[in-house]
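testing teh design pipeline on a random one, pls ignore if ur not involved
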């Protein structure tokens, strides 16, 4: 069976790849959007923190025998704790300065983190086996669906929309948003705003690490895996609107699907289609599709 002259199996497989990539774009751009929207920091070391999540899972398995399911919880907590230290010791000094200073600091941190892992593990990459519970696949008739790929989509969407609900619909989220807009008023109500800010950055970093653990069985665990992805993720955030939580989620998923379809109909453009869309959006709507004008 064919659609527009394209075999259904090929179209379905590329849509699946696009949805998987879109899931990673969504969860990574969500972390960036949270950090920028609530802290006004452009976190350029987000890709390095994504890579750290994958490496923590790999090290936990190969050296300590800790399985995937424990690593899926432990790695975000460990890398998030590193993020808390970064926020406490470095970023806190930059909140009243121009965004450029935060970008330069986190860019430097990204280079340092990547350099340390390259020195220790090289760039050949390490493999991480799919957990036994999620091995195998399902025959859908027109294509074979690997169970682990389906898990990535479900886990990413659950975390993304759960995070959106927490920020937009709960009392904690209201405190976070109010603390960034008028910290003195919120502190007068007895709320520890600096602690909320630290929690926000740590949570954004933990999202990157969570994505890294999800990615470990799919891609090789490599010190360069974050730098290869972060530029595309930044483009997703710009298209969705800097600081827009829902914009990052929907744009990440949508661009992943568009990228997958482009690989079917015009493969030569698949690596640049996201940036072409970014340019068009910036020309038509500089604040992004979901950003505030």
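output:
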């Amino acid at each position: 069976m064919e659609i527009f002259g394209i075999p259904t199996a090929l179209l379905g497989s590329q849509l699946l790849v696009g949805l998987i990539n879109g899931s990673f774009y969504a969860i990574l751009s969500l972390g960036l959007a949270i950090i920028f929207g609530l802290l006004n920091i452009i976190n350029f070391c987000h890709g390095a923190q994504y890579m750290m999540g994958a490496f923590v899972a790999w090290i936990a398995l190969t050296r300590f025998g800790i399985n995937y399911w424990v690593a899926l919880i432990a790695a975000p907590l460990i890398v998030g704790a590193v993020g808390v230290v970064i926020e406490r010791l470095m970023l806190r000094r930059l909140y009243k300065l121009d965004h450029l200073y935060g970008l330069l600091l986190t860019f430097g941190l990204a280079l340092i983190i990547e350099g340390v892992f390259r020195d220790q593990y090289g760039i050949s990459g390490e493999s991480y086996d799919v957990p036994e519970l999620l091995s195998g696949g399902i025959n859908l008739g027109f294509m074979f669906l690997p169970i682990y790929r389906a898990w990535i989509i479900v886990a990413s969407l659950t975390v993304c929309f759960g995070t959106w609900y927490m920020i937009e619909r709960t009392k904690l989220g209201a405190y976070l948003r109010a603390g960034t807009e008028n910290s003195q008023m919120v502190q007068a109500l007895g709320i520890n705003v600096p602690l909320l800010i630290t929690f926000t950055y740590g949570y954004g970093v933990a999202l990157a690490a969570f994505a890294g653990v999800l990615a470990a069985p799919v891609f090789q665990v490599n010190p360069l895996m974050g730098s290869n992805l972060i530029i595309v993720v930044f483009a997703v955030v710009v298209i969705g609107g800097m600081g827009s939580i829902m914009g990052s989620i929907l744009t990440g998923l949508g661009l992943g699907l568009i990228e997958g379809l482009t690989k079917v109909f015009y493969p030569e453009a698949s690596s640049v289609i996201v940036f072409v869309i970014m340019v068009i959006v910036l020309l038509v709507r500089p604040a992004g599709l979901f950003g505030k004008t």
